[in-house]
């Protein structure tokens, strides 16, 4: 294919995309992690996602209290709600590292100008997604990590909680099980990250309770955000896909937005978010086809599993996963759609 042809297709896609945005309805799509989600944990995740949608969707609707629809505000608000819910592996409820401590990471991206903020290796801060956004707005950088990021967050007024305030009983139990398994087996390539004590004995140690959100507002602006506590028993200083652009998060108004979840090392090696975006942009795939194909190709080639949520620039949705389950939900036209299992979708009024 010639450069001229590629350029023509790009301009045609952009013009069609801009024309289509005139009729786009605002949408907020979230996920609550993929993997071995037990029957006990599944409804708690669904309830948490519904709450996140109901709180955050207001940022997409122009009302007497909100003068402008903002996809960026919506994804941050949705992720913040889930960071406070111990049913998810983010913020309060995060997995514990090898030392039994919480280290969180997050990223957020604005598709209108390709601005982004990423943060990693924070401790005792419940909302890394907001720190990431602050990095985007108040520094000339994209990514901060470690003690420098911790100091930046403190200086910007983010509360540093008492040590181990983000550690939950469930996370401690999962960490203890991990320690016991580690003594018996040294192969930790696909160690469990989903905080789901009820499923430890019957589900494969795969997936992640990472949370994420993608939104498109009435002006056609797209934003995406992802937040996680990583994987249980991770090495000190380990950084996963959730804070990396093109891996766990990406947004571009001309193409779409993606938030991924699953085995972080696999997602990083495959560059999952960008693979999905490329299929939409260069192969003219729908958001659903691009998401499904990329997830399947990743697992086929690298064995590790994962999932992703996608919104295309035309408002099309994509949701797919290669793990046993993935918690997802979206709100559109005053209706919430959600699910956890393949081929099972539920609906209810907002």
TrEMBL record:
This is Isoaspartyl peptidase/L-asparaginase. GO terms for molecular function: asparaginase activity; beta-aspartyl-peptidase activity. One of its GO terms (cellular component) is cytoplasm. Heterodimer of an alpha and beta chain produced by autocleavage. The record marks 209-210 as: Cleavage. Has both L-asparaginase and beta-aspartyl peptidase activity. Does not have aspartylglucosaminidase activity and is inactive toward GlcNAc-L-Asn. Likewise, has no activity toward glutamine. PANTHER family: ISOASPARTYL PEPTIDASE_L-ASPARAGINASE (PTHR10188:SF41), L-ASPARAGINASE (PTHR10188). The active site is at residue 210. Pfam families: Asparaginase_2. It catalyses: Cleavage of a beta-linked Asp residue from the N-terminus of a polypeptide; L-asparagine + H2O = L-aspartate + NH4(+). Keywords: Autocatalytic cleavage, Hydrolase, Protease. Belongs to the Ntn-hydrolase family. Substrate binds at residues 238-241, 261-264. It comes from Glossina palpalis gambiensis. InterPro entries: ASRGL1_meta, Ntn_hydrolases_N, Peptidase_T2.
């Amino acid at each position: 294919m010639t450069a001229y042809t590629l350029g023509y297709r790009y301009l045609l896609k952009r013009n069609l995309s801009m024309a289509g945005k005139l009729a786009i309805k605002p949408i907020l799509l979230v996920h609550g992690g993929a993997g071995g989600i037990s029957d006990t944990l599944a409804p708690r995740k669904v309830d948490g996602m519904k709450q996140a949608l109901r709180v955050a969707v207001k940022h997409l609707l122009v009302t007497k209290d909100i003068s402008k629809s903002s996809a960026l505000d919506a994804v941050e608000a949705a992720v913040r709600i889930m960071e406070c819910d111990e049913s998810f592996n983010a913020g309060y409820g995060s997995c514990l590292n090898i030392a039994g401590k919480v280290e969180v990471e997050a990223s957020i991206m604005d598709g209108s100008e390709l601005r982004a903020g990423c943060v990693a290796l924070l401790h005792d801060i419940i909302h890394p997604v907001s720190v990431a956004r602050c990095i985007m707005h108040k520094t000339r950088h994209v990514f901060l990590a470690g003690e420098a990021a911790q100091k930046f967050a403190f200086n910007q007024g983010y509360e540093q909680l008492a040590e181990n305030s983000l550690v939950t009983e469930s996370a401690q139990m999962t960490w203890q099980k991990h320690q016991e398994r580690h003594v018996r087996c040294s192969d930790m390539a696909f160690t469990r990250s989903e905080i789901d004590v009820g499923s430890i004995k019957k589900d494969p140690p795969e997936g992640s309770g990472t949370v994420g959100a993608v939104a498109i507002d009435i002006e056609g602006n797209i934003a995406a955000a992802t937040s996680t506590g990583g994987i249980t028993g991770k090495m000190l200083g380990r950084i996963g896909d959730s804070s990396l652009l093109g891996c766990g998060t990406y947004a571009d108004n001309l193409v779409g937005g993606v938030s991924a979840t699953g085995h972080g090392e696999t997602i990083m090696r495959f560059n999952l978010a960008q693979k999905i975006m490329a299929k939409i942009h260069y192969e003219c795939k729908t958001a659903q086809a691009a998401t499904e194909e990329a997830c399947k190709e990743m697992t086929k080639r690298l064995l590790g599993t994962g999932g992703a949520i996608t919104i295309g620039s035309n408002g099309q949705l994509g949701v797919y996963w290669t793990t046993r389950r993935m918690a997802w939900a979206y709100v559109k036209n005053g209706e919430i759609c959600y699910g956890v299992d393949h081929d099972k979708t539920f609906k209810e009024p907002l």
